[in-house]
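User: Could you check the structure of this?
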Amino acid sequence: MGQYDNVVAVVLGGGAGSRLFPLTHERSKPAVPLGGTYRLIDVPVSNCINSNITQIFVLTQYNSASLNRHISRTYRFSSFSTGFVEVLAAEQTKDNPEWFQGTADAVRQMLPHLRDWHVDTLLILSGDHLYRMDYRKFLDRHFSTGADLTVSVVPCRPDEAGEFGLLKTDPQGAIVEFKEKPKGADLEQMRVDTTNFGLDPESAVKRPFLASMGIYVFNYNKLVDLLKMDSSWVDFGREIIPAAIDKYNVQAHLFKDYWEDIGTIKAFYEANLDLASPLPKFNFFNAESPIYTRSRYLPPSKMQDCDIDNSMVSEGCILNGVKARRSIIGLRCRIDQGTTIEDSIIMGSDFLESIEEMREKMSAGKPPIGIGRNTVIKRAIIDKNVRIGNNVRLVNKDGIEHLDHESKSFYIREGIIIVPKNATIPDGTEI
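Assistant: Sure, the predicted structure tokens are below.
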């Protein structure tokens, strides 16, 4: 048996995902579509599979139906292996009548499910980060230092540091201090010389803080002890890590590649559009550690008389006379003549309407699923199964930063127009 055999991964599915609303109105955060074809959950699960960690639990409590469906259809291991990806939704028991109260409480409540797995090491991951990591290096650091807990960290800039848990280490990399989202003088006090972690002097000046990525390797028994110490401790950053620093051997593992927390609409929007750039920060075209997702057996996309640049087009699309710039065009998109898409994410559709269904909708005065003729969409996120008519302009012409439209057919967040799942935008609408 190798030392990775008794490692179980736990992906935290996050809370209600209010910062990603309305994308999380009908789905949990890990089920939000990414890059036209994938979902956020595919990133940590694929990182696990590429790191030979195949015993994976995903913890959720909000809107978990679409996540369950995606995972059950996507991750099927051979019946001769011990691999699994299993969703554990929050459940009420006599011991725990409450829902998950925080990250640590979610793990506390799932411990009964782990008793039979002979776990000695728990890898705790987040479901809304975009990065590619070989967790074996993370685990090797943990085992080689004899750590009870290892926290993966990234160097970060002063303007973003206050949004993370920050830490300081001794010269060997043992964590000696941790503060969750410090501000003002507390923030300044957490500056470190990141040249000690292999950054060149110029990068160290730009990124003088060490931020927790919110992913951890725990010695299983020590974690159980920590969770028993105080039942009011519900969060890893606020309570468990500071307690562990006082009591146990807690180490830092530095991660220097691209990592993005995509928990907000703006971060989600920018991370997606960057995927379509000529040299994206995160590259899906990596044969050595692919990101897996569901096989859908869709036909190749069909494009006629189109002008498309710096964009990604998923399979199953029919694009007719479309101009697209810096955009993501998702699965089964139907976009009609004379339409322009700029700086936008079109998530596509869960199914293809037949010609009869389309005619039926049109005769009832309702647009078919997709985007009609002579429409302009700029700086927008169009969720799945949306019907947008002809001669529509979604351009946020008044430069509004935040809006919840009373019809619930569109929202604006940080200046980005969002059309939620299954919404209809009639012909001639201007936003």
